[in-house]
Amino acid sequence: MKELRTLPDGSITYELHRKHVKNMNLRVTTSGVVRVSVSPRVPLGMIEAFICRHRAFIEKALQNRKNRGGHPMIPALDTEMMVMGQMYRVILEKPHTVSAYLETSSQGNLVCGNLLQGKPSQRNLLSRNASSGKLLRGKSSTYAVTVANDTLLVRYPSDPETIDASKVERMWLTFWKILGQDFMEKLAKQVHDEFRQAGYTVPRPTVRLRYMTSRWGSCMPFKETITMNTRLLLGPTKFAHYVMVHEFAHFIEANHSSRFYKVMSDVLPNWKQVKEEMKTYYT
């Protein structure tokens, strides 16, 4: 159960999640939401005292989020951004311009919406990945984002004062995950073929997509799993390709030895140049 509460002095608004956890947990999300998870048996007074004891941490974390300009995967309205190598403008949708939406429900489930005149690859991608969802026609969605040509149409509540930052964050992160999963799986197949052509035998891994703050990708050789950073969707596809090759190379060599870099050069000869370009792009 989730509640949105504010301390009696009005200084901190927080999300209270009642769940079966042993300890009280507090975190400040990348979009500036203060989230507290506690057991259903913990009284409210104890929770508020816990938050007050960590007031300095919360204020510092919120200031850091503000200085960084917010979550990099949550774009501002009326801006342009690159998505998988193509430029899109993020626009607040006007009423009745879209008849169906891709949205995140309160349970976090996906609802697949009509992509209207979206590009065929995007239309097929989203409708394939969310084919088990429910198609909503002629129904407004409170939090929704959909692709139409070179535009990302966004729907938020009509009253700006009622916008829930945690729902906005969940909507965007889910959108990117759905959009990118098929792309990353196809990229993994391509890179697998490139390794085979270079004379290396590697497994066909399970590919996962997750927003990460400290790394672009990770590989678990024993589990044959590669995890790619969702942020890679916000740039040229050659950067995601470089990271995928890097993670595949760990199936051959677990550490960054000279052999590892030989594998990299055999499969992607210009990897050093791409790496430098990527550093500049994401700085």
Please render the helix and strand layout as text.
Blueprint: E1 2-6, E2 13-18, E3 25-28, E4 34-38, H1 44-53, H2 55-68, E5 79-83, E6 86-92, E7 103-104, E8 110-111, H3 120-129, E9 144-148, E10 151-155, H4 165-197, E11 206-210, E12 217-220, E13 225-229, H5 237-249, H6 258-267, H7 271-281
Parallel strand pairs: 2-4, 6-10, 11-13
Antiparallel strand pairs: 1-2, 3-4, 5-6, 7-8, 9-10, 12-13
Helix pairs in contact: 3-4, 4-5
Number of strands: 13
Mean pLDDT: 79
* Fraction of residues in helix: 25-40%
| Adjacency order of strands in the biggest sheet | 1-2-4-3
Strand content: 15-25%
Shape: globular
State the separation between the terminal residues, measured CA to CA: 39 Å
Low-pLDDT runs of 5+ residues are: 96-140
What would you call the structural class?
Answer: alpha/beta
